[in-house]
Amino acid sequence: MAATAPRPGNVFDRNCPSRPVLEHATSRWGVLVLGALLGGTRRFTELRREVDGVSEKMLSSTLQSLERDGMVEREVLPVIPPHVNYRLTDLGRRMARHVRRLYQLVEETLPDVLAAQDAYDRRRR
Amino acid sequence: MAATAPRPGNVFDRNCPSRPVLEHATSRWGVLVLGALLGGTRRFTELRREVDGVSEKMLSSTLQSLERDGMVEREVLPVIPPHVNYRLTDLGRRMARHVRRLYQLVEETLPDVLAAQDAYDRRRR
DNA sequence: CTGCATCCCATTCGATACTG
DNA sequence: CAGTATCGAATGGGATGCAG
């Protein structure tokens, strides 16, 4: 019963099923999609514009992962042309708020980070 | 002056320098390394054990990224055999606390997530 | 013990073209 | 509009061997 022994259900354990879930939410595009959806319901194309640089393919697969994990709800309106809405679930909103704090902190402290990078690179030459 | 126009320094903008920093901290191993270091100073091998499944190579490169970004401090003790300590900087600790809330939320809500996954998979067949 | 260098594979990712 | 299909490029990541 060592204090550091891996427990099942603990994300530090290799086989913990939390890991893939966490990875979907913290993935390159997952973070930004969650953040964008904090602004409210969005259509596919709106997300594509708001999350600058994401490809159709990656947006699609990111949304599918988040939907499967119960973070995002998908609503298909039976109209032509197609109209699909994405919104956060309650769980998704809780995740998204934490995620937002993360990238906001990075944005706020960016000057410090850039300075640290510069110092590191100079130290290495 | 549209409300959704990309601003420089905004992580939603394709060229925002925050993006790679955020990606280091939210990477598969970055999250767990930050979380482990919240427990205090750790040696390389201790991290290797605590972050179950990480390879030497990935732990090494993860620590380098985090050090370069000013999240982690590295202390080399001039002894034989080598002894290297890693600890969070103030900025790293702030990041790590947010990161921890993220994976703790995932751990806590895992049953809901697994149920959502199951429902999604059944819906698809 | 701590890591770097190398090799190599699997997966991810992006661009493009196409469909309902 | 909202995707899927496909393909090549890039990256992530593991295994091994070696050095300080």
UniProtKB/TrEMBL annotation, chains A, B:
Coiled coil: none
Sequence ranges assigned to domain HTH hxlR-type in this UniProt record: 16-114
Keywords carried by this UniProt record: DNA-binding, Transcription, Transcription regulation
Listed InterPro entries: HTH_HxlR, WH-like_DNA-bd_sf, WH_DNA-bd_sf
Pfam short name (any one): HxlR
Superkingdom per UniProt: Bacteria
Keyword Transcription regulation: yes
Transcription regulation recorded as keyword: yes
GO molecular function terms attached to this record: DNA binding
Official protein name in the record: HxlR family transcriptional regulator
